[in-house]
Design goal:
Elements (H helix, E strand, L loop, with lengths): L12 H7 L1 E2 H7 L5 H9 L5 E4 L4 E3 L1 H15 L4 H11 L39 H20 L6 H15 L4 H13 L3 H14 L4 H13 L3 H14 L4 H13 L3 H14 L6 H8 L1
Antiparallel strand pairs: 1-3, 2-3
């Protein structure tokens, strides 16, 4: 007999009030702290929501110390960005940006999967002969099939993985298939497999900015910030209008104490993505 797994019940409001501190309470206690700054502290991983409900967000007691220090810095005439940089320096840069906040405040905290790049196109290998041309055409067909599947719900991602693998069996040098297959491994937190595929793609095409950018994200996730900076820089060398690469490069430079180097990328991001999810954060740190 199968059993239906029950989702844990959300604690009552009274219980939440006893155990945690709501965002509303924090704003009342620390009036100099702007609403968006609390969101920025989450993005930097300096505070982490304990519980989110339809009406409020709750934080554990340990987060109050961070909030209090930021408030005191601002009340003393300092800036929000200075307060954040001081906290980052104390943590030796080992804080991870909460990427999932891009997709909405109600989402659980996790590193998001990279979306499929619409700019990718099937690129058959330059092989001679009718047989090789047919194999390349079939590989391209499997790639396009995977591209249509990898964002579909249900088993779409798994079917896309199989399609990309078929494409690569026919044409091992099909870089777009390597990148999209790596993205699926990244989404599944299979970072070793994803890294190997991104590196293979770059060995075949050093100007593939998608592979360089995505590889930078893996290095960032694993705390290898110097390697991440190198990858983001390579991505921008191939495509300097890619807004996300400017943003994540700025984030990584900030984490390594290179605020002056980060400033141009904060500003460029604002120009490239004036309505982007991260534009307020970029504005704070570009001043």
């Amino acid at each position: 007999m199968s059993r239906t797994l029950q989702k844990p019940a959300t604690p009552s409001e009274d219980e939440l009030q006893r155990r945690f501190h709501s965002r509303r309470q924090i704003r009342e206690r620390y009036p100099d702290l702007r609403e968006r700054w609390i969101g920025h502290l989450e993005k930097w991983g300096l505070i982490r929501p304990a519980v989110r409900t339809d009406t409020d967000t709750y934080y554990a007691f340990r987060d109050l110390g961070v909030v209090k220090r930021v408030h005191e810095e601002i009340a003393a005439g300092g800036s929000f960005r200075r307060a954040v940089r001081l906290l980052l320096a104390e943590h030796d840069g080992q804080l991870s940006l909460d990427f999932d906040t891009v997709h909405g405040e109600a989402q659980p905290a996790k590193v998001i999967a990279l979306p499929r790049r619409d700019t990718l196109a099937a690129r058959p290998s330059a092989a001679s002969g009718k047989h090789q041309s047919e194999r390349a055409a079939l590989a391209a067909r499997f790639f396009l099939e995977g591209s249509e599947l990898d964002e579909q719900p249900g088993d779409g991602q798994e079917r896309a993985r199989l399609a990309y693998q078929k494409a690569l069996l026919l044409d091992p040098s099909l870089v777009p298939a390597l990148v999209n297959l790596a993205n699926i491994h990244y989404a599944r937190d299979e970072l070793v497999e994803a890294q190997a595929l991104y590196e293979r793609a770059l060995n075949l095409d050093s100007d593939c900015f998608e592979a360089a950018f995505n590889l930078g994200n893996i290095h960032h996730d694993l705390g290898r910030y110097d390697d991440a900076v190198a990858c983001y820089t390579d991505a921008l060398r191939a495509n300097d209008s890619y807004a996300d690469a400017h943003f994540y490069l700025a984030v990584t430079l900030e984490k390594t104490g290179r605020s002056a180097d980060a400033k141009p990328h904060w500003r460029i991001y604002q120009g490239l993505a004036p309505d982007g999810e991260w534009v307020d954060l970029a504005r704070e740190f570009s001043e």
